[in-house]
Amino acid sequence: MIRTAILGASGYVGGELLRLLAAHPQLHAAKLFGESKAGRPVAETHPHLAPFYAGSFEKFDEAALADVDLILAALPHGHSQDVAPTILERGIPFVDLGADFRLNNAATYERWYGHAHKAPALLGEFVYGIPELNRAAIRGSKAVAAAGCYATAAILALKPLVDSGLVNPKSLIVDAASGVSGAGREAKEATGFSTVDGSFSAYGLLNHRHTAEMEMALDATVLFTPHLVPMTRGILATCYGEATGEGDPLETLRAAYADEPFFHVTDASPATKWVSGSNGVQVTARYDNRTGRVLALSAIDNLGKGAGGQMVQCANLMLGLEETAGLTAIGVYP
């Protein structure tokens, strides 16, 4: 059994990790760190997990890592920079969901996050955590920065099209809509029921931080607009690019993802409900002869492939386990 510590276990992603580990054949949630809920029962915060977790959350203690084989961190932005040096020094395999180590240089980080990176020397230690892009590098790595949820959805829809020369990488537009769980568990007026119910809104205009990840992974220029939709889970990314090459974009996606266990390339327009509660990705694409553009869409669960599921997928690779262990591409429907 692989003893796993979860940092940020009391949040929505922490709860998703606990749910996945409860069914994982080898990863065991041994240390559940949750600063704001320390001392309180896990079942009080995550009642759906009451049959599996009888203990309480703990305050983070470096000494408690002595008997840990894996660390999964779902901390608020900026916090991983404080703990990463200690974790890497100990040599414990570490999957971080925060944005702290996703970008490949400190200057880009400062541009998009508005402050200097506190541990720039460690940026090169982390592999960008989308297995379908970086599987070989993730295998055996000690540090992986799992990709952002919006970035995952957009990159997976566009990467094969950019790489095959079917779209102009300087012309990309991404419109993506997410459920409110993407904003985290902390109560906020902007994501409260009375604010979001019956409403659909855009935010982060021109400066959403996941843009930097998209541009890094695609080697492209991206205009990204995120939207908040009144649902709990899921992301639908609608992506556009100027067509520059011959070929069928749908068949290009089929060829790129033919052997990927969590992908379904569909003729239909995918919906978030199809992947809810899973690590699945459903994608499609079209060429529009009228406008000379390519349209690509992807649907993921923002807490699954966009967060906890992708973290477990990366951890499986890092530890030499079956990549699909504890994960499924089967959504919960209706």
Summarize the structure in words:
The protein is an alpha/beta fold. It folds into 2 domains: 2-146 and 305-318, 3-Layer(aba) Sandwich (Rossmann fold); 149-302, Dihydrodipicolinate Reductase, domain 2 (2-Layer Sandwich). The chain has helices at residues 12-22, 42-45, 80-90, 106-113, 131-138, 149-163, 193-196, 210-218, 249-257, 304-318, and strands at 2-7, 27-33, 70-73, 94-96, 127-129, 143-146, 172-178, 201-202, 222-228, 235-242, 263-265, 281-288, 293-300. The chain has a 7-stranded mixed beta sheet. α1 packs across α10 (304-318) and α6 runs parallel beside α8 (210-218). The protein starts with a strand and ends in a 16-residue tail after the last helix. The model has no long low-confidence stretch (mean pLDDT 97).
Summarize the structure in short.
With 334 residues, the protein is an alpha/beta fold. 28% of the residues lie in helices and 21% in strands. Helix 6 (149-163) runs parallel beside helix 8 (210-218).
Strand-residue proportion = 15-25%
> Which CATH top level class of the largest domain fits?
Alpha Beta
* Weakly predicted, low-confidence segments: none
Task: Kindly state the percentage of residues in helix.
Answer: 25-40%
How many helix segments?
10
SSE order: EHEHEHEHEHEHEHEHEEHEEEH
Class based on secondary structure composition and strand pairing: alpha/beta
Per CATH, the architecture of the largest domain is 3-Layer(aba) Sandwich
Strand arrangement in the largest pleated sheet: 8-9-7-10-13-12-11
Total beta strands: 13
Oligomer: single chain
Write the CATH homologous superfamily of the largest domain.
NAD(P)-binding Rossmann-like Domain
* Shape field: globular
Mean pLDDT: 97
